[in-house]
Amino acid sequence: MHTRNIILKARQLGFRALVCIIQLDAELFESAKCALIARTPNDTKRLFQEKIKFAYDCLPEEGKKTNPASNDAVGS
């Protein structure tokens, strides 16, 4: 993926999930540092659990061993 992608879409079609998956991929395989920003801390926690942690948990065990999670909670 390029660093400046434009995705044309209507509302509620999974754009946030796509961005979260791209960020997880960049963090795991490119050693990038990523941030998750939402309207409220509760929204941030919900997005983390529903999108990022869920995707990480679905990785094969070999992928988890190669890229172990050091923190599985949303910080402040």
From TrEMBL:
InterPro entries xrefs: P-loop_NTPase
Protein name: Terminase large subunit
Taxonomic placement: Bacteria, Pseudomonadati, Pseudomonadota, Gammaproteobacteria, Pseudomonadales
